[in-house]
Amino acid sequence: MSKSPTVLITGANGYTGSHACNYLSEKGFNVVGVTRNPYFEGEVQREVCDLTNKESVIKLIQKIKPEYLLHLAGKNHVGNSWITPSSFLEANLMSTVYLLEALRQENVACKVLIAGSALQFNPTDISTLNHPYSLSKTFQSLAAQSWAALYNMDIIIAKPSNLIGPGPSNGVCSIFAKKIVEMENQRSEKVLMVNNLKAQRDFLDVRDAVKAYEVIFRKGNSGEVYDIASGCSHSLQEIVNELKTLTPLNFKIKSDPDIQPEERFQVPPLKMLELGWRPSISLSNSLKDTVTYYRQSKIT
């Protein structure tokens, strides 16, 4: 019997990471989850490593020698990036550089998938830079593409849209769902604050994103950048309307009525469609599962 390929998943305690560990394990991979602290939920093998420490990263790669790397770890809070921009560069850029350098030296044949961001900016037009988080993720992708070109490494970048679905997320849909459950439990005033109901986003279930990562591992082409998205745009007003159907509560919504509508934008995942991947979980089911998660969670 052939040995199952080993995939190293950084950020294994995170929102996407926990889903990835479970899914790829079910798909026959030998999953090793990397976390920064010893606390870890899940049944896969665990390794504790500070990815911003170069020596620790080298020891990790020497020990595991993975066939695949799914790099999900990093900082992803736009607001906090304004407060400590250097920490975002350290967590998103330098952790990636240390991982790629360790692989180049110890395990160059590893197939690497870097989770970028739809919030990256165009580095040839500085006016498109909106916050330090975008800077850190753009630098991360540029570094990954550079290592692929300079050292002929098998590196792919995925750019997921706004991920939603069950699990502990700081995304807007999760924030809304958690707030509604707090209202149901009479732990919060029955008012949902939404800054801009007219804001438009592409929302994709995190479980569909994880399936896309597996497809990329099996079929993706080195050096490519894959958009992972639903291909549809929804306003926050649509999200709130859908959430209202999932609760008997009659809560109020407070927002700024003077904000102008945003244009609907599409993120067509054309390259992923060519690989045979399709989103399978509807927006309504994603939101339903998110509300159910918080109803069952001890967090609320």
State the gist of this model:
The protein is α/β, with parallel strands linked by helices and about 300 residues long. The protein has helices at about 15-25, 55-65, 80-85, 85-105, 130-150, 170-185, 205-220, 235-245, 270-275, 285-295; strands at about 5-10, 30-35, 45-50, 70, 110-115, 155-160, 160-165, 190-195, 200, 205, 225-230, 235, 250-255.
Walk me through this protein's architecture:
The structure is a single chain. By secondary structure, the protein is an alpha/beta fold. The chain folds into two domains: 6-160, 3-Layer(aba) Sandwich (Rossmann fold), CATH 3.40.50.720; 165-201 and 232-265 and 281-296, UDP-galactose 4-epimerase, domain 1. 42% of the residues lie in helices and 17% in strands. The chain is built from ten helices and 13 strands. A seven-stranded parallel sheet has the order 3-2-1-4-5-6-11, with helices on both faces. Helix 1 (15-26) links the parallel strand 1 and strand 2 (30-35). Helix 6 packs across helix 10 (283-296). The longest helix is centred in the first third of the chain and has 22 residues, at 85-106. InterPro entries: Epimerase_deHydtase (IPR001509), NAD(P)-bd_dom_sf (IPR036291).
**β-strand amount:** 15-25%
Radius of gyration, CA atoms, in whole angstroms: 20 Å
CATH architecture of the largest domain: 3-Layer(aba) Sandwich
Q: In terms of structural class, how would the helical and strand content be classed?
A: alpha/beta
Q: What percent of the residues sit in helical stretches (DSSP H or I)? A: 40-55%
How many helices? The count is 10
